[in-house]
Specification:
Blueprint (H helix, E strand, L loop, with lengths): L9 H63 L2 H9 L3 E12 L2 E12 L15 H84 L1
Length: 212
Amino acid sequence: MAMAHVNPTRMELKKLKGRLTTARRGHKLLKDKRDELMRRFLLAVRENKELRERVEAELDAINRSFSAAAATTDPRFLREALAIPKKRAELKVSYANTMSVTVPVFQADILSTGAEGEPGYGLAFTSGELDEAVAALSRLLPDLILLAEREKTALLLAEEIERTRRRVNALEYIMIPQYETEIKRISMKLDENERGNTTRLMKLKDLILVDR
């Protein structure tokens, strides 16, 4: 959006110079913020990649255990064993501030209705593969929650980086050049007026001298 021309006065020139100084300062701060956000985003992406690879590898192993359990266990017994879980998780969500970005912090509380270490189903008609898969999935739950937290954080950081990038570009390529152009225009106009006044004063002086 083009800036509307203002009256070429020294007051307006002073205002524009103040706005230009503020815009340049804001531009620098936003660039620093963008760079720091990018650094944290890249760090989060690397951590997410490592965690996701580990979680996916463990999930593959768990799926294989469940497949083996399904192949060696009567489907009816398998459904009954997993129908009513003895454990449940309550997810608590709090928030932290990272470079003006509000990111979630997940914490899961595991609640159990049975004794510690019990799988939550009868062992008479189930296989060891099922026990192994259930236990592994239970151990993997904290990593799954952590992965969700980190991926949401990375997404929020990416969105903030994009917003900050747009603001930096708006200042760098639109607002600051417009201020500079308008300041130059007013300065040239004031200089022109000053030269015109000087010329008129010189002519007036010449006329006074001639009259004498």
